[in-house]
Specification:
Keywords: Membrane, Transmembrane, Transmembrane helix. The protein is an all-alpha fold and 69 residues long. The radius of gyration is 17 Å and the shape is elongated. The protein starts with 7 loop residues before the first helix and ends with a helix. Helix 1 runs antiparallel to helix 2. The chain is 84% helix and 0% strand.
Length: 69
């Protein structure tokens, strides 16, 4: 019964989407630790924060599209 839901295509898309999200979260956390050390300006820190959030929002849009195929 469980095999009908856990198809190879579903598992592949799950690994790709979750793997990308985990990598982005790790990069985001590393960047959050490095910002005080590097002493970036407020404008640069804000630009980096906005860029990372745009990437995460983009993933939230792309992942359901990948899972529909």
């Amino acid at each position: 019964m469980l095999r009908q839901y856990l198809t190879p295509a579903f598992l592949r898309h799950l690994v790709i989407s979750d793997g990308a999200l985990v990598v982005l979260i790790i990069i985001y956390n590393l960047l959050a630790m490095l910002i005080p050390v590097v002493k970036l300006t407020w404008l640069t820190g804000l630009c980096i924060f906005i860029l990372i959030n745009v990437i995460l929002i983009g993933l939230k849009v792309v992942i359901p599209l990948l899972n529909q195929r």
